[in-house]
Amino acid sequence: MTPLSHIRNFSIVAHIDHGKSTLADRLIQSTNTVADRDMKEQMLDSMDIERERGITIKAQTVRINYTAKDGEEYILNLIDTPGHVDFAYEVSRSMRAVEGSLLVVDSTQGVEAQTLANVYHAIEADHEIVPVLNKIDLPASDCDRVAEQIEDVIGIDATGAIRVSAKTGVGIEDTLEAIVTHLPAPKGTLDAPLKAMLVDSWYDSYLGVIVLVRIMDGQLRKGDRIRMMQNGSVHHVDRIGVFRPQMTEIDTLGPGEIGFLTASIKQVRDTRVGDTITHEKKGTDTALPGFKPSQPVVFCGLFPVDSAEFEDLRDAIEKLALNDASFSFEMETSAALGFGFRCGFLGLLHLEVIRDRIEREYDIDLITTAPSVIYHIHMKDGEMMELHNPADMPDLTLVDHLEEPRIKATILVPDDYLGDVLKLCQDRRGIQEDLTYAGSRAMVVYDLPLNEVVFDFYDRLKSVTKGYASFDYQMMGYRQDNLVKMSILVNDEPVDALSTMVHRDRAEGRGRAMVEKLKDLIPRHMFKIPIQAAIGGKVIARETLSAMRKDVTAKCYGGDATRKRKLLDKQKAGKKKMRQFGKVDIPQEAFISALKMDG
Amino acid sequence: MTEDWQNGGFGLYIHWPFCEAKCPYCDFNSHVSRTIDQRAWRDAYLSELARAAAETPGRVLNAVYFGGGTPSLMDPDTVADIITAIRSHWPHANDLEITLEANPGSVEAGRFRAYNSAGVNRISMGVQALNDTDLKRLGRIHTANEALIAFDIARDTFDRVSFDLIYGRQEQSAADWRSELKQALSLAIDHISLYQLTIESGTAFGDRYALGKLRGLPNDDLGADMFEMTQDICGAAGMPAYEVSNHARDGAQSRHNMIYWRYGDYIGIGPGAHGRLTLNGQKHATVCFSNPNRWLIGARDGQTEQPREALSRADQAAEFLMMGLRLREGVDRERFETLSGTSLDTDQIADLVNLGFLEVGKDRITVSNQGVIIMNSVIEALIPAE
Questions:
Q1: Across the A/B interface, how many CB contacts are shorter than 8 Å?
Q2: According to CATH, what is the number of the domain B313-386?
Q3: What is the homologous superfamily of the domain B4-259 according to CATH?
Q4: What are phi and psi of B206, to 5 degrees?
Q5: Where does the record place the Radical SAM core domain (chain B) (predicted)?
Q6: Which of A330, A410, A527, B190 is 20 to 30 A from residue B337's alpha carbon, by CA?
């Protein structure tokens, strides 16, 4: 067991693409934690989706042995956290398990919205923060300006900021040394009853649930009987260990240490993140403060393209939910789409990640319906109900008024693009709350309806600012507004999966944009197809998709039969990826693409 | 017991894989080669014919077709030896149709008489366009005038002459095509094939198209208008379409091609040649190696084919509809049912009839005039789901 004075626990705070994963890779590599031949890019991002998108979704942990300049050997525990706003909750709880943070800022870019959001989590968790200026090998690097910006915007001393190129390895030794000298050692008492924080948990098909713990007081040994303080359940610990970053079993975890345990736990849901773990006998009486559970804010329907795959989808969703307690689901039936699930997510990225994993890991083609937020419907009889799905909108004569969730959005943008950002926010029914400058960058704060943001706000923001803006938000509660349900009719049949809640003043514009989009997304058929947007019985926008004009093979002789037949088979298989509504085939991507607004 | 293929007949296709130059739109199996050992090729065709004959003893041969490539580059002697062998291998009618595809160049035209003596009685000329600008764009090495001279020689030599034109070319207006088509019809003897230019991937045009460099092609609306205009003009001139792109005077249809569309059996010999062959009651798809040398070497010991594919009833049903509905005579429902073991979806048929794309007679169903232009969708809708 390592003495407390020789342990340092830390996380890395950064905006996406500022080099967090590369820096983590270098720290791992330069301490020979992983043999060079086993080293791969973004060591800690284990899911394919994480590697592909260059994002971290699940918190990951690694234990690094480092011999410092004072000749002593230290244990450095890194918890790598997700950077995206959807997973802000995971960030804040991971921060509670460590004492300090490296604040990584790209010295060619400066502070961004995610830097801010995440550094605030670190400050809230009372972290000691070491600023690291990365990418100093690039010609556009401007360390002095960025250091000044860190002091101006965040308000922490950046004079001693470490200058690093995670790419070339410059400054890595300094970073390791700073972790040892600047960050505090953890506190804890070896003789006290066991008190361990449940930081995270996930399901492994061989080992069952793996629980990531931070020992606050006492010792955890293999074979111990432990109690989860929240529900009182008792488990027998069959394994404990640390991540290097692959799982390595050890015998004991002491105060200040971070590691894992397995105890034949079947479901992630049985392990509440933030819970306190103690010994069954002679345990502690005082639990740690704990965290409040994360709440889904975005809902959508997931339906199998092939209705025969419903059971496979149920199976996939249940397996994913085993590992992700923040993801909720319940069965849903749609007149148009048949059986599926209404699922709740932390945000749109979370939605996309889950959807991609179902399609990829379970090989099920999905139709994803329009994402929706939770509306509060206040009925005339004084009751309030939550609306997760526009298709469930009750009879309007019974409704008194509707409320929608609002957010506080913080956007940092170079002032060249400020006008575009303000226009975008105004177009999305935003109310400006603040506008300040830090150097040539503006920071704008807007009060925005969440339903204007869940969909494509971030894409639009990136496109109007050529990628230079950064964005983060927090939930702000509910407010009444004039909201209506807009239905879409294709070939005179309502397609419930395309129903959306919109603001009355925006309905015509949204309706027009959607029918125009659908006209492009639905392939031409043998007959013409009217596409309409309607509120109640009133049509507010209409387009007509004309019938196909030409679809004939000019030459088809003996040598063509095989190839043309196979082509036909392929086309028929392609049609199976579409869903039939009446006599119209609608491609699966139409359900999402139709909602994306270009302006 | 009669077998299904007998409804369509039995034909023989000989593929000659060489061309003087490769055309940018062509996705057929053709190769440019300086030296061709005519004797070796003759021997290979003869031994392959003997092998095919051994598999199909006693079948009455309805038609023979020399395609390519450019079969008018074959020595007339080679053609003569092949035809003699064919006549000795299979029983056949006295008026066995033997077609040879020819380029309308002056050199080829000089061989027409010799081909006729060899037994060729029908010639199909790849004229493609009647003006030099478009011929150049299509990569053709003959001129319009050469084509007209070659055509005169063909007409004097053969009873039956067909020629091909490609329309929907770059920068071609409907009016351009109308006057060119009228000129073509004034020349036509008894048969003409009119193809809308199709950009196939894997061709030079396909590559240019993918790069966005093939400009001035008609959009679907203009293409559809040109197609409809073509039907009207040819119909009025007594050369109605009997298939999507083929027009003939009454009785002058290509008997060989009718075997494909009526879903008969046909043997394919030569590099890349496809066949359909019913053996012991099972219909097979056959295909020869497309590399000319591989095929030539393989012919020494009868190893010229890729493994044969036994066609399932569903495959056969799909091919039967796909080929048969191209014909104005349509398909026989009972034959479809016997072949596929299923019947056509009556709701689907009713929909297509209501839309005006399908006509249902007592025994046959036919794609209507209006439906031909979107025939692929009609066929796809009719093919039973697996």
A1: 102
A2: 1.10.10.920
A3: Aldolase class I (3.20.20.70)
A4: -60, -45
A5: 4-240
A6: A527
